[in-house]
Amino acid sequence: ITLSEFVLDKKKESEFAEQLEVENNIILGNDLKQCIQHIEEGIIRQFSEYTSLRLLSLLSLTEEGLSSKDYRHFVKLFLQSFGHDHIITLLNMKKMGLLFEQNLTNHILSPVSGGNNLLNTKVVAAMSAFPRKSHFRATIKRLNLIPPVIDSGYNLSNPTDAGFVFGGIYIPMVCRLIETAIINNDKNQDELLKMFPGEYSCKELSKSGHRRKEKTVLVCFIGGVTFAEIAALRFLANKKRITILVTTTSIINGNIAMKQIGPE
Q: Which Pfam families match (predicted)?
């Protein structure tokens, strides 16, 4: 039994390391064909439905959506492997802009021949509300979310940025956003916030006569925050010598987020 547990633990470590490598390659845009094969194999062998959904979502966001061929293939394959209850999961992910097709607009807006015009209009109106594409690449470039590559490699023991929370591959977006827009007081704050969905408001509070020696930033997460994001904000606070207070509705991770999207 002890030997079996040892082998099982080693297998889990190997699978986890392989998953991290795939995630890194997807973010950097490397070996995407191999990444797609890894996701496909994971779905066929039923490793984990939530891990598969996370990887599909990451691929969709970073590559401005999946091709129509890949999208339909993965939807069909996923439902066959994990059950048709996940139709709700996939539909919710599509509505949230986490999993979608490339160039979906032209496909949706084309008229359906021989159908009810009123029905077609309603379908087009409903589907046109879905997100069309991600601005992940533009956001990465604007916020400089990929740590610079150096010959000696990323120093995890003595990091110079918050990318250490993801092995030196990626800096959490919320960390860079706060650093750029608030702490560094970026003059193009409005232009920066327009890159993100939803409404926003920028107001400068009136300055009191008493000047605080240390700046305090309050960050509120609605829906949940990960431990990695908290660690990144703690690193930023120490680096900038400020106080960052974090409030949230819950502590989450990738699997919890996928479960909340699903039918359960």
A: Sec1 (PF00995)
CATH class of 149-261: alpha beta
- Per this entry, what is the length of the chain? 264
The residues spanned by each domain of the chain are 3-103, 149-261
Q: What whole-number distance in Å separates Cα of residue 123 and Cα of residue 93?
A: 18
**Domain 3-103 of CATH type 1.25.40.850:** yes
The answer to whether the CB of 146 falls within 8 A of the CB of 169 is yes
**Mean pLDDT for each 10-residue chunk of the chain (264 residues)?**
54 72 88 94 92 95 91 96 93 92 55 46 46 66 83 81 89 89 70 73 60 79 93 94 93 90 76
The encoded tokens of residue 147 equal: 């740590």
What is the pTM (predicted TM-score) of this model? 0.75
